[in-house]
């Protein structure tokens, strides 16, 4: 059995596969690790056959949709998953075949209603139902402590005691545990009566995960995060260094346009000499009058280098094939004491 555990902060994802059939499945992939997963699959000589999400994640950005599109393979999730891009919806007792490897679906709601655990011969991927020394929280959308009680005490803890547990999160300590070990030492599992377990889960005061609303929006809809939008735009444009822009401006180069895409107030307060002003919000509407020559070289800039990257990518898509973005923004330009012109 091929097995790789990939950590991204506390989030865990897994590549599991069959070396005889050269196929694998990826469990709970995260966007920032896409290259790592692909490299691991290549290293093991396996084709990723399925992408599986154990549940709708609220705390990380799932790479499932993106990987499924680039690899041309189905996304598997529980039938209650709200994500519209799920190709294969599974339910309690279904078996996912990956060569000679078998993953049996256990519906283990409570953390979310679409949570499932995947049982292999000697290990179980518990998603956020059972964690090491903890359990998934039940206070996020579709969470329910009563359901988690049933999932844990009625299903997961009834698996073989020596079965290993691989959860979707490991915040500290060992990267895996066993059913026996958790039953014995996991503090939350010591509350064995339903009422006391539910009461404990209801009174945990946990801080909300970072990016909660954005992660839920992206994972439930298959849309993109702001970071993803920016990195896609950055991959589509070249950049120009500040020194290069400064010397071209100083030399009075007339073969390129410095384009300030910030709001009017910022432009008036100080801009790169010779810069033309066209705010990002009006770019598409005013582009024809502001930039009549599509062959001109354009360098966009803003305060931090993000909006200018989006603007350069938009310009390229519209046919300004020589548009680039400033590597950095006005904030650093000022810090460097580079020349500034103001409207006053
Ligand atoms: Fe989760």
Per CATH, what is the topology of the largest domain? Metallo-beta-lactamase, Chain A
For the residues shown, what is the average pLDDT? 95
How helical, in percent, are the residues?
Answer: 25-40%
The unique ligands bound to this protein are:
fe (ii) ion
Low-confidence residue ranges? none
- The structural domain count equals 2
Span between termini: 70 Å
β-sheet strand percentage: 15-25%
Spatial order of the strands in the main sheet?
Answer: 1-2-3-4-5-6
Radius of gyration: 26 Å
Give the count of helical stretches. Answer: 12
- SS content category: alpha/beta
Can you summarize the main beta sheet?
6 strands, mixed
- The overall strand count is 19
CATH architecture of the largest domain: 4-Layer Sandwich
- So what's the oligomer here? single chain
CATH class of the largest domain: Alpha Beta
Q: Which shape, going by the Cα principal axes?
A: elongated
């Amino acid at each position: 059995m091929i097995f790789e555990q990939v950590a991204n902060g506390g989030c865990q994802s897994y590549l599991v596969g069959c070396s005889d059939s050269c196929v694998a499945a990826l469990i709970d992939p995260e966007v920032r690790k896409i290259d790592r997963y692909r490299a691991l699959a290549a290293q093991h000589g396996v084709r990723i056959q399925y992408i599986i999400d154990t549940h709708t994640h609220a705390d990380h950005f799932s790479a499932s949709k993106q990987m499924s599109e680039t690899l041309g393979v189905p996304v598997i999730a529980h039938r209650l998953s709200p994500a519209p891009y799920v190709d294969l919806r599974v339910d309690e007792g279904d078996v996912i075949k990956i060569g000679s490897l078998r993953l049996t679906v256990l519906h283990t709601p409570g953390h979310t209603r679409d949570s499932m655990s995947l049982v292999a011969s000697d290990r179980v991927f518990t998603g956020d139902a059972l964690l090491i020394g903890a359990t998934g929280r039940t206070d996020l959308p579709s969470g329910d402590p009563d359901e988690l009680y049933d999932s844990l005490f009625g299903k997961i803890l009834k698996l073989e005691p020596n079965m290993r547990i691989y959860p979707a999160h490991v915040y500290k300590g060992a990267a895996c545990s066993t059913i026996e070990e958790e039953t014995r030492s996991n503090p939350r599992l010591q509350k064995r009566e339903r009422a006391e377990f539910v009461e404990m889960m209801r009174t945990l005061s946990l801080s909300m995960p970072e990016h909660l609303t954005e992660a839920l929006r992206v994972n439930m809809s298959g849309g993109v995060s702001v970071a993803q939008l920016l990195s896609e735009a950055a991959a589509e444009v070249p950049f120009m260094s500040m020194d290069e822009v400064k010397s071209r401006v100083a030399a009075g180069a007339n073969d390129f346009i410095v384009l300030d895409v910030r709001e009017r107030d910022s432009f008036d307060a100080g801009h790169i000499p010779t810069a033309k002003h066209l705010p990002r919000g009006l770019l598409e509407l005013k582009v024809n009058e502001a930039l009549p020559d599509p062959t001109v070289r354009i360098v966009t800039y803003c305060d931090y280098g993000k909006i200018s990257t989006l603007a350069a990518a938009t310009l390229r898509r519209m046919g300004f094939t020589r548009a680039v973005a400033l590597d950095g923004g006005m904030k650093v330009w000022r810090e460097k004491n580079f020349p500034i012109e103001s409207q006053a």
